[in-house]
Amino acid sequence: MENTKDIRSYKPEILTCPFCKGKLSYKHTVSNKVIQFYDGKHIRVKNLGYGCQKETCTNKDHVYFSQTASKMCIKGYTYSSKVIATIYGYKQKHYSREKICDLLADNNIEISARNIDNIYNKMKKQINTDYEQIINSSYEKMMNEFNEIRISIDFISVFDNSMISIRDSFFNEQIGLYFFKKTETELIEKTIKRYIDNKNITYITTVRNIMPSYQYIKKHVNENTKIIAFIKD
Asked: What DSSP string describes the chain?
C-alpha cells in the first residue's frame, strides 16, 4: 500500500537559465509517481519543472527538472534503480522469476513473476545497446539547442556488480546503461571516459562525493566542468 504521507518534491539542482542567466521559477510538475524502493518503502516522488521567467528569453519555454529525482527511478519504471539493478543481477545469476519474487517480497517489494521477465528483457535490451551513435546525437542536439552539454551519471551497486545509468540533463533521455563486475575497473573507466572526455561538458550531476567514482570523474573531466553531487536519498 502507498504511504501517501511520504511525499518528496525535488526542484532542479541548477536554478539559473543557461541562456539569459535569469532566475528559473516553477512551471509545472514533470513527473509525479509512486516508486517502490529497495527497502520496501513506497514514496511518491514529484519532479518539479522550472523555466525561465524572462519573457525576452529565447528559451523561456524549456522546462528544467531535478536530476536527483530522475536518478531514483530509471525512465519508464515504477521501481527504484536499485530494485531494477537487483532484478537484473538475480537473473544474471540464473534465479527463477518465482525465486526473485520471493526474495523481493522479503523486502516488501510487490512485483509479479511476469513483471520480472518484462523488466529483465527490457533491461537486457538497454544494456546491450550500442550507445555510440546515441551519445553523438545527444551531444550534438544539446550543443545545437543549448550550446553546452549537461549529463547525469549514477552508479548503483548490487552484489559484486555496478549498474551505471547515464542521462542527458536537458531531456532526461537514457544515453547509457551498463552492467559491470566491480572488478572490471579498466572497462568501467574506459566507458565513463567516453562520456566525460568532451570540452563542451559544463555540468555533470553524479554520485555522492564520498564515492570513488566521483573522484574518478573529478580527476578526468574537463577542468571547466562543474560537478554537482547527488544528495543522499
From this structure: ---TT-EEEE--S--B-TTT-PBEEEEEEEEEEEEE-TTS-EEEEEEEEEEE--TT-TTTT--B--HHHHHHS-TT-SB-HHHHHHHHHHHHTT--HHHHHHHHHTTT----HHHHHHHHHHHHHHHT---HHHHHHHHHHHHHHHSSEEEEEEEEEETTEEEEEEEETTT--EEEEEEEETT-HHHHHHHHHHHH--TTEEEEEES-TTSHHHHHHHHHS-TT-EEEEPPP-
What span, in angstroms and rounded, lies between the C-alpha atoms of 223 and 212? 18
Q: What is the pLDDT of residues 22-71, one digit of tens each?
A: 999 999 999 999 999 999 999 999 999 999 999 999 999 999 999 999 99
Record the pTM: 0.90
* Sequence-distant (≥ 6) Cβ neighbours of residue 64 within 8 angstroms: 12, 14, 24, 49, 50, 51, 170
Distance CA 50, CA 60 (A): 10
113-140 pLDDT per residue, tens: 999 999 999 999 999 999 999 999 999 9
Max alpha carbon distance in the chain (Å)?
58
